[in-house]
Amino acid sequence: MSPRFRDGVVFVALLVAALILAGRAPSERILGGAVRIVYLHGASVWSSLLMFCAAALAGLAGLILRRESWHAWSVGLSRSATLFWWTSALLSLAAMETSWNGLYLAEPRWQLAVRFGIVAALLQIGVAIVRRPAVGSVTNLAFAAALILALTQAPTVLHPSSPIFSSASIAIRVHFLGLAGVLLLAAAWLAHSLRPHV
């Protein structure tokens, strides 16, 4: 079995495990079983956010230590984070339909997700063209800082501030953390495969 094929099998297995976890998630008083798409959306958001932060930290380590391996990890982490970010943005459409009975594309959090998703994708293309992982480290630092700042200042209209952790149900919180953990592991595994060779 080739390493690339093995990596693909593990990544798909982790995604299947995440879907099974989401399917077995506890229902919620208002949304019922439809809340499971909200679990997937939220877990994807948190996984991608943590990966963007990890990409920034790896990039910082690469710049300080002058190690190409850290730069490569920064690029791989940001590539994976970008894919999961777009996945969470698409899942948010289904979550809107489920939670709000329609799409509300004027929601500031949705607009922020799309804008930063476009910027992230363009940065990935630019770094791939330049073929200098150190450039990716610099852009990943700036991107993560801008994203965190924007998220802390973004207003909300219909989007709740913390739908999972504002729940009184411990089962919901624990299940969400387990789902987010599996998706984070999948994102990290994908990042390992997407690192440029240095």
What does this structure look like?
With 198 residues, the chain is mainly α. It has one domain. It has 6 helices and no strands. α2 crosses α6 and α3 crosses α6. It is globular and about 50 Å long. The model has no long low-confidence stretch (mean pLDDT 87).
Strand content: under 5%
Shape verdict: globular
Question: How many domains make up the coordinates?
Answer: 1
State the separation between the terminal residues, measured CA to CA. 24 Å
Any low-confidence stretches, pLDDT <50, length ≥5? none
Q: Tell me the structural class.
A: mainly alpha
Radius of gyration: 17 Å
Q: What are the secondary-structure elements, in order, as H or E?
A: HHHHHH
- How much helix, percentage-wise, in residues? over 70%
Quick one: biggest sheet? Answer: none
| Number of separate helices | 6
